[in-house]
Fold each of these.
Amino acid sequence: MDYSIGIDIGGTNTVIGLVDESGTVVAKEKLRTKESSIVDDYLKSVATKIELLADRVKEENLILGVGIGAPNGNYYHGTIEYAPNLPFNGIIELKEILEVLLLKDGYNLKVTVTNDANAAAIGEMIYGKAKNVRNFIMITLGTGVGSGIVVDGKLVYGHTGFAGEVGHTIIDIDGRQCNCGRKGCVERYASATGIVITIKEMLANTTRDSILRAIKEDEITSKDIYEAALKGDSLALECFDYTAKILALGIANASEVTSPEKVYLFGGLSKAGDILLNPLKKYLNEFLFSVFQNTIDIELSGLKEEDAAILGAAALCY
Amino acid sequence: MDYSIGIDIGGTNTVIGLVDESGTVVAKEKLRTKESSIVDDYLKSVATKIELLADRVKEENLILGVGIGAPNGNYYHGTIEYAPNLPFNGIIELKEILEVLLLKDGYNLKVTVTNDANAAAIGEMIYGKAKNVRNFIMITLGTGVGSGIVVDGKLVYGHTGFAGEVGHTIIDIDGRQCNCGRKGCVERYASATGIVITIKEMLANTTRDSILRAIKEDEITSKDIYEAALKGDSLALECFDYTAKILALGIANASEVTSPEKVYLFGGLSKAGDILLNPLKKYLNEFLFSVFQNTIDIELSGLKEEDAAILGAAALCY
């Protein structure tokens, strides 16, 4: 059987998984991303873990390579570039350094890098629901909003290697201030962070009753809003409706560009299921240009949350 | 030498051109699109003109095929579908009917169909400035705003075959009413029609002096605004600045999706040159997410206005 190694580099932890061709994570290793702020030390630890996993199967099987999903990961350069939430500054030559380290120890493995959302999109193609879907958009709803765009069966990297930033398309030039320095980005509304901003605005601007008034304002989480919505709290439901509206606008605008057949939602907020999906579908059709209406299905991702980042990264080897 | 036949179907005229491989239109035929509202009659006339042109070179040369650029032209289906400005209703099986007509007369030519803006993008790739550009966006600024998106050297058709509608991305959900039934489409601001709406609003909402006040309001054209701007008329310049701002937002949002290296402007409003280009470049950089800033050049198309539609259509044969 063929195996691949998928690595999910997050701000806190780095998880390294050995994945078989059916998409099962057969073994995992973990280390703290902040273990060392010296990149070379950190990457030596990563290489050691890769070798540990490879040793489990390499005698009798082919290991296709190592795929890495990382914030600001660049597919063309094999780098991480100026990732704000990682302990390493500037441009990290991830692919080059790791390949050299592995080769020194006798492991001839090709390393491929991309960002988390692109990895999720490729994961959906290889192991998830998008096996036969030629045109789709993957939306990852976490602290921010990421996206991976697939056109004609291929992930879109574009000129820079950073294509697919639906979360940073602008839906209102006078809108909310985004961390990126601009205003009105989709991410500022349709992420776990964004929905909390929305509910705080709603609680402040109305005197309407809500279960959420029992929680200290600074402690409200997106999960609280979801639970309130599940109980039929009208303010929480309205908050989800507004979130869905903005997300639908971002998806509609991206869809006018690439005309996808499917949109898959993944991560955090997508767990709200129909509470998010139902208004999302309604608004998407409203915002779409006539030729695209009723041509796009929005669904939840087919990847298991727990292993999705590793699966996406491992899928880069294909 | 290889030749191809390019057809530009417009609301008023249909122009059929014989194009050599260097991109020279060596001969042209013309007929009125509204000659007959019976599609079969119209297409018989088109076929006759194609044959007339083909006869000029077919003895000693290869004719690659027939390319057609038409409003609402669909590449996958070879059809025109519900084009509002053509005299034919519903779905026209353009490719099928024309191929049969031509074959009957002994001309075995493959017919390819797409919309005008996609044809312009392909024309730019084959005959214009984009010969070695893998990722670009073509924007056609006419009565409306069209676009053709090229990713990794291939035109994006998407699931429906209608991908690339930057003109119908929404920049303000409470914005101007668009003909398409929705509100706030880029096209409603950044087209020849849109800029006239803007100047009328400006003239009505201020008492500022302007050369344009000498023209009857209902008779102001985008050309008048351009000429006033050339003379330094501050209201006209502000009008171009606002137009550029909205267009920049539409282009920025599309660029977050596909990360182009170049954006080419074509048609009507693009003739304003630097009056449009200078503010457009400034706003584009402002609206772009940091990783895309200073990675995109905006330029005027390299296709000659007069023959561009035919060249784009002819380029479909490649």
Amino acid sequence: MRHPAFFVTIKFVAKLSREELLREFEPIFYPKSIAVVGISQNVFKVGSVWLKALVNAGFQGAIYPIHPRGGEFSGLKVYTSIRDVPGIVDYVIVCIPREAVPQLMDDCARKVRAIHFFTAGFSEAGDKTGRLLEEELVGKAKQGGFRIIGPNCLGVYSPEVRVPYGPAGRIGEIGSVGFISQSGGIGEKLFELGVARNIKYNKGISFGNGIDLDSPDYMEYMGADPRISVIGTYLEGTRNGQRLFSTMKSVANLKPLIVWKAGRTKVGAAAAASHTGSLASSAAVWSAAMGQSGVIEVQDVEELTDTMLIFQQLGQLEVRGNGIAIVGGLADGGGGISVSASDSCAELGLNIPELFLTTRRKLTNVLGSVGSILRNPVDLSQSGSNHLKIKEATGYVLQDSSVDLVIVQIDAGILLKYLPWELVQSIFNVFIELVTEQGKPIVIVSPPGAFETQRLEMEQRLSKASIPIFPTMRRAAKAIVNLNRYSRFRRGDA
Amino acid sequence: MRHPAFFVTIKFVAKLSREELLREFEPIFYPKSIAVVGISQNVFKVGSVWLKALVNAGFQGAIYPIHPRGGEFSGLKVYTSIRDVPGIVDYVIVCIPREAVPQLMDDCARKVRAIHFFTAGFSEAGDKTGRLLEEELVGKAKQGGFRIIGPNCLGVYSPEVRVPYGPAGRIGEIGSVGFISQSGGIGEKLFELGVARNIKYNKGISFGNGIDLDSPDYMEYMGADPRISVIGTYLEGTRNGQRLFSTMKSVANLKPLIVWKAGRTKVGAAAAASHTGSLASSAAVWSAAMGQSGVIEVQDVEELTDTMLIFQQLGQLEVRGNGIAIVGGLADGGGGISVSASDSCAELGLNIPELFLTTRRKLTNVLGSVGSILRNPVDLSQSGSNHLKIKEATGYVLQDSSVDLVIVQIDAGILLKYLPWELVQSIFNVFIELVTEQGKPIVIVSPPGAFETQRLEMEQRLSKASIPIFPTMRRAAKAIVNLNRYSRFRRGDA
């Protein structure tokens, strides 16, 4: 597919330099102007809502509402056609019925750089009209010299230029994570979970049917983008498996590429066909190809966000090995938690080495031997919830040379049954101090329960100190396994 | 082991009738008097805290604080020795150092019915003193005619007579779930998660080292107790594997017995030995024995509570088969969720049947075909979040004869981005109405996110309408698998 005007083809990545790739996608992720087609005075219509979201988010470029009747909307001049807008429009958001789309495509020729279709009803609808329309769109885009995002998707999220994600979108904190989601709804979940869990996105995209720009295109771009350090992806299928696999391989060599491939089962694949018109191939083929390429394969939205989070928080640290220490019992009664935590970690293949005798002696001095479990897991119940003892003991565990990473279980709901909030805060602070002082990674397991307000407040503070937090031991362990596997892949011993 | 006085032995269950078993445990779970040994004027000492918790919870029987110096505590007369207390004491809570325990045991002879040791430092400490003390305790209990709970545990939770669980315990809502936990800390988590998720316990116990009364004893009792409809258990090991396995088998034939066996891995088993002095055997042996006996084996605290919850909420309904329908997309964009939900369910062995053509026709009439996924999973995005359409469509899905249970995904955080709270409430209410009107079970998946206050409020309401709620699709699917497996076992086709 050759594009005569603004875009050179990006199908053959080898031919494009990193700079060319970045320039190609500039109008999509850093648009200077956005038109919204399909606004109306009915403020509940999606186009109107979307336009307001752009205004409210403080989008930094020009905004052009388009409607055949013209007039004014939200203080902005409404253009009756995209052709009347002065100059070139970088990005068009389309919220009109599928029947009106071909005429719009003609109007956009040589006028716009990229069109994003929220509009659905194409190949995923399963009717002939939808399929033919899709072919027509591709042809018109080629002739008109612009690229298509979608159809049937929520398009771009780009907080640096204040483009919110979707019609009810907001702007989150800016960081270095990128997401690519075939589904708009999953993209929305990723955004929301990001806000809740302190995952900071640099940009994101949902691309729906992907009839022109497809998952490999976005992967290549985010692979080339120096502002992005880790990519999380939700895929249902692809139109060009060979290209996708070779792209995943080259991108995974540059930075962590996490892929959740849905439609793995027969019934999931059937649903994917009705959702984004995707033809899903066998799960085994996908898994094998991803595993060989260094792609981090995950199984659900929880594992995807958990894994993005651990790479964001610990990706810069050198996690040298697989040796995990488990610390629990910050309030009385950490024994059972220690036993079951060991199971979860060991079953997923993590190594829980017995601490060196010198470490255990130091721990005995702090905690005493009666009622303590000190080999690893380490049960701090005998610290009497004294934050100085907790710090000293955890410090010894971190210093043990067989330990590469420490998992600490903190149950705020149970701590706050026994201790005043000030004391519990001092305990949480211990781990922030230890990470700063010792530089070895700490991962926190903090289950929901009673005292949710206090728990969330402490999680925010821990999170800002580069500590990743997970709601269950199993999820923490799985994220660590994914982190370690990629480290081994990059070192060449996977 | 024969007990001369209040207890006849319950080692040979076949010889005890249900009534005898219930009478045996009456002083433990329905005590008329409780003594707390180890209170002091230092209000931070655990004995003092525990005594106050008993008073605050409104325990209905007599409370006797014991301390060598006598005096008064919390408005109660302090006895200098348990021997001075008038009459028989049903239940003694012991919070004194291990060295003082043998003398106390002598004082308790013929005076008390059951002693619960919070005190730790016995076989789990790994020293000779601890082991010898434990043997001494067993001998003295036999001679003295009382039973031992523990040592090294939190003992009884019995909300009907207002005995809180542990020194910081409260009283939760009373229902029909029983818990048995070797670990006091895990018991506390089960209690707290119960409060958070509307699991209503009838009673619970943590039994630590279990040197006299052990897990099979508590299982037999709860098996016999007509107030209990489902039993959730956390085990680290046992002193008599043969007896435990035969007990589990007979109890699982009476009611659902859910068992989380920790210490499955080598490192977990080592931690269990330091925690409750348990010798864990091979995971495979345990799993095989449990599977054959109809015991529902679970892997972590989340699956244990999820499974107790689904039995509490749906155990009375006749879930006839394995046919699951998945409904999503209550706000825009349920497609990706539908695809991935199908994967999670199908991978765990649930059947997602294609809906009958008649059902799909009815759905098309309500939702239209463009943009809809209607075979199962069913994506309701085209309902425009209209609660009447959502009710009509979900009603048709429930009526489909291939469907035994419907899973509905509701993301309150995303719904509330688009809709006012009143509208979201009407949508939630649809499912309460449908369960009442149609009698087929609905399970809700409701992930945490933004708008936590509103989410928790709606979850409480759904929960009171016998709808079980899970935070992720995978956890819901796993709980349903456990429920179905037990139904098949009871029908004899497992």
Amino acid sequence: MDKIIEPKILKGFRDSLPEQEIRKKKMFKDLEEVFSSFGFVPIDTPALEYTDVLLGKGGGETDKQVYSFKDNGERDVSMRFDLTVPLARFIATNKSNILFPFKRYHISKVWRGENTQRGRYREFYQCDFDIVGSDSPSADIEILIMMKTSLEKLGITGFKIYLSNRGILNKFLKINEIRDKSAEILRIIDKLTKIGEEKVKELLKELIGESKCNKILDFINPEPDFDKTLDKLITLCNGDNSETERLKVIYKALKENGIEDYYVLDPTITRGLDYYTGLVFETFLAGNRDLGSVLSGGRYNNLASLYTNEQIPGIGASIGIDRLISALEKEDNKKPQALCDCIIFNIDDDLTGLLYKTAAEIRKKGISCEVYPENKKLNKQFAYAEKKNIPAGVIIGKDEKDTGTITVKDLIARKNYEKINIQDGIEKIVSIVREVKS
Amino acid sequence: MDKIIEPKILKGFRDSLPEQEIRKKKMFKDLEEVFSSFGFVPIDTPALEYTDVLLGKGGGETDKQVYSFKDNGERDVSMRFDLTVPLARFIATNKSNILFPFKRYHISKVWRGENTQRGRYREFYQCDFDIVGSDSPSADIEILIMMKTSLEKLGITGFKIYLSNRGILNKFLKINEIRDKSAEILRIIDKLTKIGEEKVKELLKELIGESKCNKILDFINPEPDFDKTLDKLITLCNGDNSETERLKVIYKALKENGIEDYYVLDPTITRGLDYYTGLVFETFLAGNRDLGSVLSGGRYNNLASLYTNEQIPGIGASIGIDRLISALEKEDNKKPQALCDCIIFNIDDDLTGLLYKTAAEIRKKGISCEVYPENKKLNKQFAYAEKKNIPAGVIIGKDEKDTGTITVKDLIARKNYEKINIQDGIEKIVSIVREVKS
């Protein structure tokens, strides 16, 4: 006998079982509906790329997490670790075939060899939407509106989008003659929620001294509302500048759309990543800030600098699919999921053709319908239907065949409708299924 | 200045541009609709698995094509090269959480380092649907019906499904005392379309001598219809056996569903792969047999033997996504694809908020609507709309704002509807879009 291989999965990787996969597909479908309703188009890029194309001059913290290897042709290749670098590469490669402003979305898997002890996965989905080729406030507004619309489409309520503008902070740092420390300061502020104000204060004091540290803490401390916070920022920057003007335009548009309450101006938002140049934002679910941001991003005005000297501005947002799924799963678990609407039981092998013919009739009404493929004991077939949460059942035996009828079973209410004519039976199935779905 | 990296893609890999990606997503959506209407559920598995789990004892021709490497933890890992091996592994891993008969589908990317000179890609989609855990003729029938329904859903006409049964051929080989040469004989017959009858004759003669070669050529030569071919096979096998009985049951059910014309009993169909044990099938488009089979598969009655001693029977089919896309593209290219239904042009930056508010109103009618994000020259904005094949346009200037109206442009018929009230304008947009889509 051959040796059996243990069917084990790599650490940090997961199978997706039907219930999970259905939920994920529904989520993607909802998001894609929103994205295309805004005129965004989908793209895809290869899972494998040349290592130097993905990692550039390399050497950073990310690189250690990337799956890199030599392929059979001795090329250095890597699996993509995000969808932003491939977007930049895609744009540089396809520049002449792309229509700008380019509004695209991309939902796909990425891979990172992260430390699984922190509960991270090594294979996960990213979902990004971006407007590339426009530096206008209008593009900022569109992305902000899409963020709200996307989360609402997923049935998420009680979220707030916290936004800020790196340009304003940088202006402020310049006035206070600490612009050269910008990167470190941004990174320290970004840790505020994680390490707390005291620790941030300590780190800033060490870096730039107490007086400037206090100025920054004042700067990032939000006022009670958007306008007041913006006013303070303007004052601290010695008057308006192009970035504060832009925030005014953005906020005015949000108000005109009656959705301003979803947005909070919060100067503590900086985003860790280097490539953001203007607006930055994060989204937290009410009462679930520990989950982290579920939808983040910002404006980057030099996206494809690795591949082209042309300056290409853009703004984009990325949905934390795994975080949202885990937040939504808690809700959804209350309700059992029907994996099929209707099942035709098998009690007579001679009738197989008729069972499939009847199933085809039922499907015409938009009802998913499966045929149990074996003439097993009925209680086995019922148990199968119950585990799949199928609400409607059909029995067709010799009697039904001879009289041109079917027997319909309401598997939830446990009621039978014996030997009714086929069209009435199908109507009955439709109403049973509709009842469950309502 | 930093050195620019050439944004090149690996040979055998492709970007998917919006038009292609939309077409592909539409295709997957249609297929998923069919699969779930039959009560099939989706699963997913990791892109990376342990090499020995994917390749088993290894050493075959496939292995050289697999992307294998050592990960950062020095584990031997491989990228999946099909969806059948992962299905077997999935079933062995999740046995206790799976409900049998397990009807699942899986649409995902796989990777093979194939020779790109033959026009093959190294990254491509597979789309499989299987019934695992049942050896009944009913399961065979269901898969055959789903094949037809899937292709019809994609708008494909004029296809035929060619089927055969390996069990019958093996029976025949046994009677003729050449059962031990079964694998070689199957492989030679499988090449018939590619190398022609003369060459097959030559190879068979060499293997088993002229008289037995002629018997096989007689066996695989189809009669004018299903019943006559089956009768001949029964005669050549010295009477009925369980496999010929099964074919009778299958054909009877197809006839009872009025779809028997789509199916051809063709004993030349053998499928190259070793794991098939019963029914095998391939699908060719009328007048396009050169494209190869677009939908193939068969019954395997020992799927997970690499991972478990339990015998798990199943039957499945795999859609040749790339082949179908190339066949459908020829059709689709006739018709330009609208990447969005409606565009709101930008002629006044002060009105941005109103543009997004109007866009939201339009979307409520199921019309996708984008806002041009910059106040550029109108002819530039028109050119953008034309390249995206957008049929309806909206202009909102100060006049429109003050009078609570919009100007609607039929961009196909080049007609304007100036300053009409918003609700009438939206109705106009709906009718322009409906016209184009009809």
